[in-house]
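Recap from last week: sequence in, structure out.
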Amino acid sequence: MAYADVFRPSVKQYAGLYDVVLVLGGSLFIALSAQIAIPLPFSPVPVTGQTLAVLLVGALLGSRRGALSVLAYLAEGAMGLPVFAAGGAGILWLLGPTGGYLFGFIPAAFVTGLLAERGWDRRVGSTLVMMLAGNLTLYALGVPYLASYVGLDRALALGFVPFIVGDLCKWLLAAALLPSGWRLLQRSR
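Predicted structure tokens:
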């Protein structure tokens, strides 16, 4: 069970509306997090809050709603809304060097959500592993796609290595927040 399932209404009509609101809210959270962007002068891939947002959305909303939130986010950006890093918009963002990372957000949110549904977000250690799995899923699509533009050696140097420390910090933040949220929820019952 994902965190959002705890609050899901039992009435079918309201449950569907609840899911739609969560998916759109998840896409908004990702879009806002993308605006926290630090360009790296040596790389086409900026440091953003997107990765943390995508993995948290997956963990909090679950596999399906998390992946749908990312799809909504990508559709919003493709339609011209300034939701990508630093206000970027348009279909060319999806086709450019960082497109593999953007499309990699879908399975990353799904994998993280699936593991959260199985309880991996309840303890610090398993949350760290869950975040690692989501991040590796993202890199499995992003790095090879970037490599099609710059070659594999440069793709690793530009789109993987510079982000390891930041990703680790994001995992630690999630490992503190997610299990704490579950403990608070249990206490409030």
